[in-house]
Structures are given as structure tokens and as C-alpha cells.
Amino acid sequence: MEDTIAAISTSLGIGAISIIRVSGPESIDIVNKVFKGKNLKEVESHTINYGHIINNDLVVDEVLVSIMKAPKTFTKEDIVEINCHGGIATTQKVLELLLNNGCRLAEAGEFTKRAFLNGRIDLVEAEGIMDLIEAKTEKSRQLAINQVAGKVSNLIRNLRNEIIEILANIEVNIDYPEYEDIEVLTTEKIIPKINIIEEKIKKIIKESENGKLIKNGINTAIIGKPNVGKSSILNRLLNEEKAIVTNIAGTTRDIVEGQINIDGIILNVIDTAGIRKTEDIVEKIGVEKSINLINQADLVLYVLNNNEEFDQTDKEIIEKLKSKNHIIIINKNDLVSVLDKNKISSDNIISINTINEESIDILKNKIKEMFNLEQLETEDFTYLTNARSISILNKCLESIEQVKQAIDQNLPVDIIEIDIKEIWNLLGEIIGETYQEELIDQLFSQFCLGK
User: Fold this and answer.
1) 330: number of CA atoms within 13 Å, CB side?
2) Which among 257, 233, 232, 267 has a CA at the least distance from the CA of 246?
3) Worst-scoring range by mean pLDDT, 156-165, 172-181, 209-218, 420-429?
4) What span, in angstroms and rounded, lies between the C-alpha atoms of 164 and 182?
5) 353-365 pLDDT, tens per residue?
6) Residue 336 pLDDT
7) Which domains does the chain have, with CATH numbers?
8) What contacts 266, CB < 8 A, 6 or more positions away?
């Protein structure tokens, strides 16, 4: 990190302002070469300076230049931000001048990567920054800002501190057995301490399901036979004519997607092709996709037609849904009923139609009830949200199980210590206290350029 990097930090396009960010030991010197105004080497830190960006004697743009000197910056390096007029040509020209004068074009996420490597933030906080940029709802924003503020990291640090106390006691017992005033830490005394840590990890994993819900939304598949009203339900949920609706069976041949916001949670809704036997090659592919989506979805809305009889296909699909979050929707309840509801083996059944606005509210309320969305209003949003962290926590549970097995087998405490250290190291991977270089490169490559 001895070089100086630069990148456009705002969206590239026509706008009022564009910001080019520069970070590194030569930031101020390089920008000063192309800036006409005050000598940027002499201005105080955290000041904004008016002037012009010049190319030799030609004025490129009228700008405001922010000077932020290390270590009180995002990357803990000298940072310069050039606020120029928005526009592709102007922004690119200013960046070109910086690159010609000694900057290197930053890689995706490299500013945040430098902040992490320089100890400004940990990995959970870094991931929170990415989540904050991508947040689509108020709840996902709150979730991300708690990660950025370090609240989530503190959960992990507290666990590591509890483990380090166990490890310290074991080390003292091993290295200084002659001291009579030191508590002898036997395996019997380790078990309750490990059990407490195990319960805390399990609690974090369980609550992180809420975090994934807030961050990623609920992947919802609308499944059913042709002409039961799947596309009409999608259109009413989205409040737009997203899917084509006709009385011709097989109109929807591929998936149609959309998003709605229910109490701050995004529903990623997918309308699928009607499930039936067909010789049409295109429709057959759509039907196969519909069936596959049952396994992939977080929630399945299986739609039945109130005006059609319940048949074997319906029975087979509902049987597949028993292990899934699902709602059986009896649609078209404004028509004469020929559907035998007693044949439906599910407790999650609602009856609606797409003519009445209140019917869609019934569906939304059922979803809110199923995922406890009302309860999320009172939560503090201190969750882990990414698969990497949750996977590591599950590995911690495996190591805890190994500790218990070792104790059952009456292995020496110094052998048991190895597995306890593994738990401590794994928790360190979550916040980046311990990490592999490849992991860091892969993680920050997901960030946008300029961040």
C-alpha cells in the first residue's frame, strides 16, 4: 500500500457533481500538480479549497478540493477528494490527469480494503459499508449502519474475550501448577463455560435469520396450474401490469419477477409458468423451472382456483410444500365454489380474489404473520447477515462438539485447549483478526469502484 490510488466515487453519468477520491502517501502532492489555487501542501487538514484543475495552462474544470490528512481519514492515509462538475467527459479528464501524474487506478473496493488493512475498520464493518450502499429499505439501512458502527463486531469480540479467559486459565494451570492460589481449571469446570458460549453462538445464528431476511428479502414463488390467477396476484401485489393476463392456458411460459416492500422487508416475487403436462417445448421448460423454484424459494404461494376441482396434481404439489414456508391461496372466491377444501392438508390457507383490494391485504398480513414481520419493528438489528460469517459460526459449533467429545474421553486439558483455540481463531476470521489473503481479495472485489 505504498502507492497512491484514485477512482471516481460517484455514479458515472450526467449530474451536478462528481467526486474523484485519491488515497495514499502522495495524494496531496499529485493533486497539487494539477490544481490552481492555494498550495495544497500548506493548507490545514479537513478543509475545502476552491480552485481549478488544469492541464498545463488549460482549465479543465472549476472544483472544490477536500484535504484530509492521515491518520484521521477513512483509509488512515492522506485522502484528497475533488468535487468537480458532473459529466462523463469532465470527470474522466480529471481522473486521467491524476493517473498521468502518478496515481494508480484503484481496484474495486480498494479504499475500504485499505481501511481494513490499516486497522480503521474490521471485516464485519467493511461488509456493513457494502450493505449500506445496497440497502433498499429502512430496515436494511438500520441493519447495515449497526454493522458499520461496530455493534455486530462487539458481539463477536465479547465471545472471543470469554474464550480467551478460558485459554488464559488453562495456560496458567499448565505453566504454573505450583501456585496454590490459582483456581485449578479441570475439564468439569470447562464444560459449563463452553456450554454458555455454545448457547450464545446458537442464539446469534438463529437471530441472523432475521438479518438475512432484512438484507436479502423473501424469495417468493407463485406456483399453480394454468389459469388459477397467478399473474393477476403478482400484478396486484406489485400494483402494476407486470405479467400478461389472459384466459388462455400457458400464457406465462417463463418466470416473471418483481419486488414489493412489506413493512420494510423486500419480497422478491416470481410468477411461474402454470404446472401441467404439455407438448410445447418452451412451455415445458417453464413448467420445469416452476417445480425447481419450490426448493429454492423462501416462501411458496400455491394458488388454487375456487372454481376448479382439487385434483391429484394439487395434492402432489401440496405434499412437497409441507417442509417449506407456504401459503395455499384459494383464488377467485367471488366465483361459485367447486373446490373441496377438506382435501387440502395445510393449516396455511387463505381465500381471496384479485378484484377486491382487501384480498391482497389478507395475503400481505398472512406473510407478515408467517415471518413475524411485526416483531422486527422492535428489534435492534444487531445481526450477522452474510453467509461467510454464519458458516464460520457453524464451524465454531463443530469445534465446540469436539471439545465436549475430548472431555468425555478424559483427554488431557492441554489437548482440549487446541480445539478451544480453534474456536477463538474462527471467531477472529469473522471480524478479520485472523484471515487469509485470498479471502480479503475476494471479499473486497465485490465492492463498487471508488469505495
Assistant:
1) 23
2) 232
3) 172-181
4) 17
5) 888 878 888 988 8
6) 86
7) 5-117 (3.30.1360.120), 151-213+386-432 (1.20.120.430), 217-377 (3.40.50.300)
8) 136, 137, 140, 216, 217, 218, 259, 260
